[in-house]
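ok posting inputs for the iron/sulfur cluster job
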Amino acid sequence: MDKQLAIKASGQRFGFNRRVRTVIISIFLLGIIIGIFIAGIFIGDDAMAVDFTRKGIRPSWEYPFGTDWLGRNMLLRTVKGLSISIMVGTVASAVSAVLATIIGIAAAMGSKWMDSAIGWLIDLVMGVPHLLLLILIAFACGRGLTGLLTGIAVTHWTGLARLVRAEVLQIRSQQYITISRRLGKSTGWILLHHILPHVLPQFVVGLVLLFPHAILHESSLSFLGYGLPPEQPAIGIILAESMKYLTGGMWWLAFFPGITLVLIVILFDKLGENLKTLLDPYSAHE
Amino acid sequence: MCHDNLPLLEVDNLSVSFRMYDKAFEQRDLKVIQDLTITVNKGEILAVAGSSGSGKSLLAHAVLGLLPQNATVGGRIFYKGRPLDVENQRKLRGSEIALIPQSVTYLDPLMQVGKQARGADKSPKRLRRQREVFQRLNLTRQTEKLYPFQLSGGMARRVLFSTAIITDAELVIADEPTPGMHLDQALEALSILRELADKGKGIILITHDIDLALQFADKIAVFYAGTTVEELPVADFAKGPGALRHPYSKALWHALPQNDFMPIEGFQPYAGDLPEGCLFAPRCPLKTSECEAENPPMRKLRGGKVRCVHAS
Amino acid sequence: MKRKRLINISKAIGKYLFRVLTLLLATSVVAFVLASLSPIDPVQQYVMGAGAVSMEQREAISEYWGLNAPPTERYLNWLSAILRGDMGVSILYRQPVAYIIADRFINTFALMMTSWILSGIIGFTLGCIMGIWRGKWVDSIIKRVCLVLCSVPTFWLGLVFLLIFSVWLGWFPIGFSSPIGIADSDVSIWQRLYHLALPALTLSFISFANVAMHTRQKLVDVLESDYVLFARARGEDTWTIMKRHGFRNTLLPAITLQFASFAELFGGSVLAENVFSYPGLGSAVSAAGLNSDVPLLLGITLFSALFVFSGNFIANIIYGVVDPRIGEERPHGQAIGD
Ligand code: SF4
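and the output
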């Protein structure tokens, strides 16, 4: 009997640790992201400062990421670029996630006709290669931030919408909903009190997991020249500019901005996974 | 027929527990089988009987060494007097010890069943043997070419059944082989097991159908809440409650339709929520404070074995 | 029974074809609307781009785009032209769009197929390795690599490869699929392959992670299934199990997934082609957008959508024809000798 109790107790301790650790890691990850974002805001014009006396400097203690052919500090430019990426990613994935939730709920709650129409719409969005659709939308909106945000928001909702739809369908079939309905509660009331609270975790996790895609597409589009205007040091633009100088051996122009972008994407991914574990512990032990 | 006095298989105080995680990241061990003791001799069918959900299938998996990684096994298993360790299990699986699994999910959904019945052995001899067995089990020649999803429940059972008969295994563990078969098919299937036993093989028949077990088995191990409470010659069961040793066996006897058809009161406890002491205590009419001290050990009594303080 | 299955499958194919048609039509509407939303006037653009434009040319374009007509009519005009095979003339390249697409698609197709096959093979193999040794160090290392690769932008990986293989090692040229100054027909197959290598490598690296992770998941499901448990109970070792059950049950989903991934492949090729100045559809489409070459942009969009839908279509057919369970109802046991 003692043994069993001991196992139980240690089990609890183990669980406690793990949960707290996940929370701490999540806060830490979020802290890094917010830190970079704020740092980017404060950098301002320094990232653009041209200084020909220090052009083409290799990575060193003074300039950890080196300087470019105009003598601009690559570390500052990179941080600024990441900050822009985080901002664009946040807005775009927030819009996309809201869109996804609304559409997902509509598909599940609406008529059969609505459901199949939405299924068709999803197929349509998935049918055109994302990048092409993004180019088209950026083209329609006349490039720049608006086109970028619209494009990413419009193309990224499909996966999450499907998840939300499945979730709502499952909740809808549960007994207490039927009872509520019999008690004369309106669809709106049920939506607000039963459906939305259940969909919320999906929404949060989906939102965070949309970030990496949004950021990757943002940088790709900027790289191709459709995103932010060239005077903004977005990572995609920094990398596109660097192409001309790579043959000259200035590898750091491409290497550091890219690798930090990858790190940011991984950070977001980890954050999303952690949130998922916190909100849905079952998925943690596959 | 075989006068080797070593039992074919001896399972001694087997316990199986699983490491589980539940909602709040809690980790704990779930004991599903404990103190399970059975003996199978050559030429003998031992029926392991008990209600469904009592972890009987895990016995089969434990003997074959097929438990998942999060399982911990305790106790000892001997095959022909030698300890059945991981190495031996690997060697003997499929050749000396065969399993008849319990449902169609044990067939690969994308492979024709004839090929599955033959197993990895591609020799013409195997093919001939498979056709013989199929015929014996009333499976037509076309059945070979069907996929599992095309089989009816009874056909699937017979295909599963065939897999063990095709081999020359000395020990066959049949895990609920009959549900879904028509009565005559089930009888035919079990008489094949009987025949195998009469040729000197040992059979473990895991079942919840005591009636069928009574007709074909030599011994019955009564299984309750993850343990065996009594091992007895089948004749005792026919003789009636007086010949039985354990209160649960007696209750089972009374529950049979041809007897009193009187259900046992209460519920079998779930793994993870087992009572202290004798596992049957909460439902036992003969319970005393002694019973709740510890799970009584298996002891010999009147040519059988019983796990009860008060049995006489 | 066989016949019935055939009918069922063709019914499903017919249904799917109809869906593809409506989707293609919708794509054309969306693309057209988006293109006309843009503040750029195609005729103006054409006139601006060219040095001297004759009156007739001007007329021809005006007519093609049906300027001054209401939007619906313009769309219908354009659609009927497309259906007749007239995709207009590219402003940027001064050639019929159909000709450019045909010409460049060969390059893009070579690029996509090479990386498609490469990523399929690498991904499936790694997925199997991870699945077999799940939970072991090999698994966690490969898994990590895959997850990191999922976070790498295609174009940056291309730049890194460019740095390593072209700039440092000097193994590969820095751009252009064929050496400049040599007529297209004189380019040998070796030279083509030589220029194809880096973009193809980039694309395969970007896409194998997905296949690998899916294969791993599927294989883990298979290896933990009852039928594999039973196979082990019958004494089959891991390799026999893989041969008899593993590949059989994972290959089909993996191939289907590969066919369904044409959209991402196309997106990736746009980036890879731009990094390596590879003359395919991808570099053409981004140039078309940047230079407001509306006919080319629309043409390639429609073409790529057709390409993606064909991929999905093939994926569906493979599933239907190869998997014996599809298109067949479960017969009553009584019917077959029960
Ligand atoms: S040990 Fe006690 S409680 Fe258990 S079966 Fe025997 S009499 Fe009943």
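notes: Chain C has two domains: 2-83, 97-322. The radius of gyration of chain C is 25 Å.
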